[in-house]
Structure formats: C-alpha cells, structure tokens
Amino acid sequence: MGWNTTVVVMNDALNEIENDPDFGRKLKHAVNSLFVRSGPIDVAAGVMTGAARAIETHQSDMTSLLAVGGNCAARLHMSLGWTQCDPEEQLRLLREWADASGYRLVKKPTAPVREEETTDAA
Which domain holds residue 94? Predict the structure, then answer.
C-alpha cells in the first residue's frame, strides 16, 4: 500500500545529513518532485550539495529493477509484483527485463561429471 522511493545516500555525507535539521524536509521535497519530473534529484545536506539522490518512485504493488553505482541508479524494469524477496520472483523479474530488452535468459547447462573426477574423490 502506498508508494516506494529509491534514494542513494552518499556515505561520505552522513555527518552532514545527521547535522542538517532541514534534510528531512529537503528529501521530502525531492521525493515529491519525482512525481512531476523524471530523472534523479540531488538532495543537499550542510555543505554537501549531493548528500543524497532521489532516483525513482513507484506504487508499492510494483517492483522496480535497478542498477546502482557511481552515486546514481537507473531503473531497468518495472513489473507488477511485491514478493521480490522470493528467489523465484527475482528470476521472473530478471526474465521479464531480458525479454523486454530483446534477450532470452537461459540457464547454463550443468557440466557432466567426468569419470576420473568421481574416482579421485573416492
């Protein structure tokens, strides 16, 4: 129920965030701005202009597949479903993303055990 928002926090700015009494208000403003503006929104704290970055927001009945790195993140795929902690659901989401990108996700074949490997272990 409700909405979820992805925020990247710059660990180097944690002291500034802790000491900025307006950080919560600034974060709220950035998150609310995501509804009308696409793309990441920097959130300042103290002297750090980019202490955090609001990335995306989505309805909580959806799952957002993201790539995170380099002080930013990008939404790769969005899907209906909220059981992303389930490994089968994670695989479904990954397959959907691959399909939407024009790829097919296939499992690697398991390597056959050679006879010499089984006799060495005995």
Answer: 3-107
| 72 found inside a domain | yes
CA distance linking residue 74 with residue 61, whole number of Å: 19
What would the pLDDT profile of 5-58 be if each residue is shown by its tens digit?
Answer: 999 999 999 999 999 999 999 999 999 999 998 889 999 999 999 999 999 999
Q: Give the predicted TM-score (pTM) of the model.
A: 0.76
Contact (Cβ atoms closer than 8 angstroms) between residue 60 and residue 82:
yes
Provide the 3-class DSSP secondary structure of residue 55. Answer: strand
Distance CA 1, CA 112 (A): 47
CA dist 77 and 90 (Å) reads 12
Is residue 120 one of the residues assigned to a domain?
Answer: no
Looking at the domain assignment, is residue 40 inside a domain? yes
